[in-house]
Amino acid sequence: MMSKNLAENIVKSQNDFAQISEETRAALMKSSTANLANALLKRGFRNTLMLGINPLSPGQPKMIGPAFTLRFIPSREDIDTMDAYSRDDNKHRGVMEICPKGSVLVIDAFGNTRASSMGDMMALRLKTRGVEGVVTDGGFRDVPAFIKIGLPAFQQKSAAPATPLSMHPLEWNVPIGCAGVSVYPGDIIVGDGDGVVVIPRYLVDEVAQEAADAEMYEEFAAWHLERGRSLIGLFPANVSSKEEYNRWVKEGRPALEFYYA
Questions:
Q1: Is 80 part of any known ligand binding site?
Q2: What pLDDT is stored for residue 244 in this prediction?
Q3: 186 and 99, same domain (yes or no)
Q4: Which of 18, 55, 126, 178 is least enclosed by beta carbons within 10 angstroms?
Q5: Shared-domain flag, residues 132 and 219
């Protein structure tokens, strides 16, 4: 039976968790983590891409959502027994019930791959509850079954041993570090084939739009490159190519083959 405190925390987390607008989500869907990181770099944020973190499965869906965090510390033999891990009030299991729908679970495993950050049963619970994905700077277990569940997931490398071997779940929804990047609850997490980027919540609308615009310019530039145009002055854009691109956008972005006919 679920404890009263856990039930209260679930209600509070669902009520307090701010989601992004559909317009911003659409812009993020169009944007690569590379272009999102570039937009953040222009604003002075140099450390936003998680180091050494890769998709669990190539071709998995893109991951977008506000961060809900779980922090591990090293385990201790007299505390982190298998019996203790099986208790209903264990925070590792509890976070699977409290992580809000639409969020991304971000796990601070202090880079530990000696034990698993989670496995397929927990992934299934998150997926069923509508969580958007999970990222750890440690590793997952039960990988073949995990992949079949279809929950977007990012890790350092797989880790089969049980969690209590070397990790203790200390707290959730607090500021953490994950793969060298600070993550605050509610920061927007985006994961794709290149990795995972962390966007401060208050910047996400403008960063998403700028990155989406960059994607559109890259399509414009790629069309010209395929037809033999030089990279110089085109990518990155100089003043002339920017003006050319802006005229095309102002005219409604007609099909380029007709626009340049």
A1: no
A2: 95
A3: yes
A4: 18
A5: no
Residues of the chain with pLDDT under 70: 1-18
If you search the block for the tokens 């659409």, which residue do you land on? 26
Range of the domain at 216: 207-259
Task: Compute φ and ψ for 83, nearest 5 degrees.
Answer: -65, -45
Residues 80 and 144 placed together within one structural domain of the fold:
yes
Q: 1 a known binding residue?
A: no
Predicted pLDDT of residue 89: 86
Q: Tens of pLDDT along 124-141?
A: 999 999 999 999 999 999
185 and 224: one domain?
no
Do residues 188 and 201 lie in contact, with contact meaning Cβ atoms separated by under 8 Å? yes
Same domain, 22 and 149: yes
Task: Tell me whether residue 120 is annotated as binding.
Answer: yes
Write down the pLDDT at residue 261. 76
Domain termination site, one of 201, 222, 246:
201
Cβ-proximal residues to 206 (8 Å cutoff; 6+ apart), any chain: 39
Domain count, the chain: 2
83 is known to lie in a ligand binding site = no
Q: What's the pTM value of the predicted model, to 2 decimals?
A: 0.90
Q: Which residue, chain included where needed, has tokens 């993020």?
A: 28
122 is in an annotated binding site: yes
114 labeled binding residue: no
Residue 62's domain is classified under what CATH number? 3.50.30.40
Give the largest Cα separation in the chain, rounded: 76
pLDDT of residue 37: 98
- Please identify, among 183, 201, 219, the residue that sits at the C-terminal boundary of a domain: 201
Could you tell me whether strands 188-192 and 63-74 are parallel, antiparallel, or unpaired per DSSP bridges?
antiparallel
Q: Which helix (H) or strand (E) holds 140?
A: strand 139-140
